[in-house]
Design brief:
By secondary structure, this protein is mainly beta. The protein has no helices and 15 strands. The radius of gyration is 16 Å and the shape is globular.
């Protein structure tokens, strides 16, 4: 699935978000700054998705077992080998860390039900095809990690999520409301536990978003709410255990 040797550059019901650089007092706080000297302030009590007993599910077509090949990418828009600190919100506290090293972006936390994320400061993307490698080194059960897509200036977004027990989902936070365009579902395409490695891909074209893992098509959703925004990554601890995930080999292309 990798087409480049070194190329490289996110939320659901009941998620707890801690800011990358400074902890927002509310979900609508300003986006993090890009200076690498700022520190993270963990705020496990901040609730980014209002807890509900029943997720707001979208009506979906029947899922079939049809194998879909990965798209053929268009022209390369940019790649990121995670060597330039100016592109990302970085920082560290006693229990959280977002850092670059060894050509990867590593997010780590050691706090109950913690959540941290980082955003790339440019460019703003509309239609694109993305590839990245996610490598959990500490991860188990319902711990989650993945990609934030089309993050707006007021922090609306889509979140492509994988869990460490092999589940996948796509969530949306839009105008203060959380929903799951693709609810949680077990997928054989995602290796459980850690250490492991998954090659992820996303094609976003207009209202259509297609998600892939390890050369397999996972799902397609159609939702017109967000058509452009920035890109980011996140991790979440579902319990008491520490979580560490690295992202590498990010490449973003024009839609084929």
């Amino acid at each position: 699935m990798r087409r480049l040797v070194l190329v490289i550059g996110v939320l659901g019901i009941g998620l707890w978000m801690s800011a990358c650089m400074q902890a927002p007092a509310t979900p609508w706080a300003p986006e993090p700054t890009t200076t690498s000297t700022s520190t993270l302030t963990p705020t496990p009590t901040v609730i980014w998705f209002p807890p509900t007993s029943t997720p707001t599910a979208f009506s979906m077509p029947a899922i079939t077992a049809t194998v879909e090949s990965l798209p053929i990418p268009g022209e390369l828009l940019f790649s990121d080998d995670f060597s330039d600190e100016s592109h990302w919100s970085l920082g560290q506290t006693r229990t959280t860390s977002i850092a670059l090293g060894n050509h990867s972006l590593t997010l780590a936390l050691d706090q109950p039900d913690g959540y941290i994320y980082t955003l790339r400061n440019s460019p703003t993307l509309d239609d694109f095809y993305l590839e990245v490698t996610a490598s959990p080194s500490l991860c188990r059960a319902d711990d989650e990690y993945g990609i934030l897509l089309r993050v707006s200036s007021n922090l609306d977004f889509y979140r492509f999520s994988l869990s460490c027990n092999g589940n996948i989902r796509l969530d949306k936070y839009f105008q203060g409301k959380a929903s799951s365009p693709y609810p949680k579902k077990l997928s054989g395409a995602v290796p459980p536990g850690a250490p492991s490695r998954s090659n992820l891909a996303v094609l976003a074209k207009g209202k259509e978003i297609r998600c892939y893992a390890n050369d397999q098509h996972l799902f397609t959703i159609n939702d017109p709410s967000l058509v452009q925004g920035s890109l980011g990554f996140f991790i979440r601890s579902a319990g008491e255990n520490a979580v560490t995930i690295s992202f590498s080999e990010l490449a973003v292309y024009e839609v084929p």
